[in-house]
Each structure stands twice: as C-alpha cells, then as structure tokens.
Amino acid sequence: MIAGLFRRANARRRAVEGLHLALSMAARQPGLYTRLGVPDTVEGRFEALCLHAILVLRRLSRLPAPAAEVAQDLVNSVFTQLDASLRELGVGDMGVSKRMKKLGAAFYGRATGYDAALDAGDTAALRAALVRNVLGGEGDGTGLAAYVQAVDAALAAVDLDGLLGDGPPFPKPDGFAPAFAPNEDRAGDRA
C-alpha cells in the first residue's frame, strides 16, 4: 500500500517537473525576445517565465481536482528554481529570503492583473499590464497581448491529462509580432 502511494507521488512529481520544463522552454522561445519585445535580460526572462506559469495556473484553477494540488506543486517547483537561481548568482541566505518575498509578491500581483484583464476581455488593460511588467515600459505590447490571448484560448481547450501528458499548447510567438518588430531595421530609419 505504501509503495503504491510512493509510486503515485513520484508520478505526480515527474508530471509537474515535465510541466515546469514546458513552461521554461516556452519562456525561452526566441520570438518572445526578438519579435515581441521582451527584454533579453534576467528580469525579462523572469517575466517570461512568470507569464507562462500564470497562464497555466489560470487554466489549472478552472479544472476539477486534483488540478489545485498540481497547481500548488507547480508553484513550489517554480519558486524552488528561482531560489536556486538566486543562490547561483551569489545572493546570500538573508538576501534570498527578502528577494523571494519580493518575487512572490510580484508574481501574484501580475497574476491578479493578467487574470482580471483576460476575464474581462479587456485587451487594452492586458496590453498596459504587459507593457508595464514584461516589456519594462517600452513598446505598445500589441503582439505580446495577442500572444497571451492565444495561449489563454489554447489552454482553455486542454484538460488536466492533456496538460500533464502532451504539455501546454504554447503557440510560437513569431506569428504574433507587430508589423514592425522591435529589433528590425525600418527602411525609413536609414536616411
């Protein structure tokens, strides 16, 4: 009996690790940085990871049990990785604790803002939140908002087995780039 419980716990842990890996891979898609304007910095990568985690957690919050347990395991996994990353950067124990509190507050604040905008179908509010948080106040966020809405719609069609089995259906961000991508030269600018 205990062996059965242990096997199930290990299976869920592996499934959550796979989900976390899928989030990390989605947050590293080059198109986010080259086409949608996410800064290729430590902060930008944190924002991209948070954004994808928030979208998956949003979906998990709408699914029946045991989705809430999976969501908590995913949050724990993401924050354990962030803690380890801070330590690798040389932040001491006291500093890690303070920074983790700030990161947690930022994460949940962003989740609340993105959730409200997506629930209301308020593209302007979503764009403003993404520009402020993810894009560091630069750009208009049109392409990124379209990407986020597409991810949210794709996730809405997936159940828990799909999330844990095939992984979240993250589209390629390249297809959501504005007519003029932030890192491209404009012919009119070369005069």
Automatic annotation (TrEMBL):
Region: Disordered, residue numbers: 169-191
UniProt-listed Pfam families: Ubiq_cyt_C_chap
Residue spans of biased composition, Low complexity class: 169-181
Signal peptide range in chain numbering: none
Domain Ubiquinol-cytochrome c chaperone: 35-165
Protein family according to the UniProt entry: Belongs to the UPF0174 family.
Protein name (database record): Ubiquinol-cytochrome c chaperone domain-containing protein
